[in-house]
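seq:
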Amino acid sequence: MKSTKMIKANEVEKDWVVIDAEGKKFGRILTEVATLLRGKHKPYYTPNVDCGDYVVIINAEKVVVTGTKLDSKLYHRHSGYFGSVKSEKLGELREKNPAKLFKLGARGMLPKTNLGKEMLKKLKVYAGSEHPHTAQVSKSEGSK
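struct:
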């Protein structure tokens, strides 16, 4: 009887995946990104090891949001002091800082542990079509 192989952290092969967000739905991209960051698409996925790939998202400012979410969905932050809740609409956040928008969305889909924080560091988001990771990119997912 064969047992399932548990991979170690030094045996993991990490690829670079480029995703073009232009014209794609925000939530659909995020689920794909979370799967890639976690490594669940690989046959040797191990829950307690960071098996995921590096993900580069380009054209983040051109992502599509359906319905009235641009005006109604709010992102809150709080410093801990009374009356210090600050809110931003999704539309404002997409215009000002699309990288933060993608990081917040992906963070919610990853584990809430130190391993999840390490996975989130492998996400690189750029508003335009240019990115400095062209030398590392070996595999492109932009055509999906």
